[in-house]
C-alpha cells in the first residue's frame, strides 16, 4: 500500500490502470491548484516543514521535509482492503461489503460524500489569513500542515465522486471548488463552515471542537458498507488526529499563559497585561462548542435511521457495541423541551442516531476540559472552564428557537439578549483578542499571550526554523 509519487497525481489506487478516470482527475487538478492559490494560505513562504504521507500502514506512514507549499503533492490514499470485511450493521448485516455503489443507494451516498467533501476546503478558506498573525513559526507550520491535509481530504472525496458516480459525481466535484466559506451567493453547505476564523484563539477552538466533529463524522462513514468510502475515511482519520492535537495543545498553551499572567499580576483581569482573560476563553469555548453541536443535526432523524438501516453510515465504533446492530427493537433517551422546562423522553433508537453520535462527541470534548482545568489547578486558580449545556446557542435540532443559558435554564428572548455578551464573545472581547494577534516569525520566539509548546515537531526543538520566507 505504498504511495506512488512518480505519478502526476500521487496515489495507491492504481490510477494509471483507469485512463478515463486518470484523465478526468488530471483535468480537475488545475482547478484545484487555482483554488489553492486564490483561497488557500495568503502568507507567501519559500517552504514549510511538512509531513507527507508515504504509506497507509500503521508504522512509518509519513515523511517530514521542507516543501514549497504550492509544490505539495496532494493525492489519493485509501487504507488497505480487507477481503473478508462484512457489513457490520443494518438490514444487510453479515453480507460482504460493496466495492461498487448499489443503484438504490446512489443518491444518498453521493450526498454524504459531497457534504463531507464540502467541509474540507471550507476550513482552508476560513483560515486563509491566519498566517499573517501567527504567534510563532511552530504554530505557523501547524496551521499550514492542517491546511494541506484538508486539501488532501478534499481530494479523497473528489476521487470517490469521479470514480463511482459518473457525470453527476464530476459535476459535484466541480461544485466543491465553486462554493466558498461565507459567500453570500454560494456559501458552504454547513453553517459552522461559513463562520469566520479571524484569530488564533478561534483557530485553536475550531481545531479542537469542529475538527473533532469531523473525527466523529468520518468515524461513522468508516463503518460504511461502501468499502472505498470506508477505506478512504480510515486513512483520513489518521491525518485528522494531528488537527485535533493542534487544538488541544493550543488551548493548553493559552490557558497556561493566562494562568501565568493571573498569578504574576494577582488579578483575573489580565487584558491590560497582554493576555486573554479566562472569561473570554470560556466565551470562545461556548461559541465554538455550540456551533459544532449543530453539525450533528436533529436529535431525531429519519435520514440517519435510513442511512443506518441501509448500511451507508454506522455508529461510532459500531463493532464494539453490545447490541444486535439492527436496533429495530431498541429505544433511546433524548432531551426534549416541554413548555418552560427541559426534560427527556424515550424514542426509537434508530431515530436517535444523531443524538447517539453527539453524546460520544460530548464525552470526548470533556477530556479537554479536564486537561485545561488541571493546568488551572496547578497554578492554584479556583475558576474552571466548563462545557455549556447542549441546548445553549443552538440553531439546529430541538433547541433551535429556544433560549437556553450555559447552565441549562430556559429563559426569555429578552433575558437572552441582555446576557448574550456574558456568554458569547462580545465586540470588545473580539477586538481585544484581535489586538494581540501580531506575527512572531523569529525562530524560538513566541507571542506573549500564549505559552510555547512542550516539544517541537518530529523531534525538532521549538527553536527550529519550521518555515522559510
Task: Give a verbal description of the structure.
- The protein is mainly alpha-helical and 469 residues long.
- The chain has one domain (15-319, 330-468): Ribonucleotide Reductase, subunit A.
- It has eleven helices and seven strands.
- Strands 2-1-7 form a three-stranded antiparallel beta sheet.
- Helix 3 (137-164) runs antiparallel to helix 6 (227-265) and helix 6 (227-265) packs parallel to helix 9 (353-378).
- The longest helix is centred in the middle third of the chain and has 39 residues, at 227-265.
- The radius of gyration is 23 Å and the shape is globular.
Rg over C-alpha atoms, rounded to the nearest angstrom: 23 Å
What level of helicity do the residues show?
Answer: 40-55%
CATH H-level homologous superfamily name: Ribonucleotide Reductase, subunit A
Task: Quickly count the domains.
Answer: 1
Number of strands: 7
Overall pLDDT score: 96
**Low-pLDDT sequence parts:** none
Strand order of the largest sheet: 2-1-7
Helix-strand makeup class:
mainly alpha
Please state the second-level CATH architecture: Orthogonal Bundle
Which CATH C-level class is it? Mainly Alpha
Estimate the strand proportion.
5-15%
Largest sheet: 3 strands, antiparallel
Find the CATH topology.
Answer: Ribonucleotide Reductase, subunit A
Overall shape: it is globular
Secondary-structure element order, as H and E?
Answer: HEEHHHHHHHEEHEEHHE
Tally the helices.
11
Terminal residue distance? 35 Å
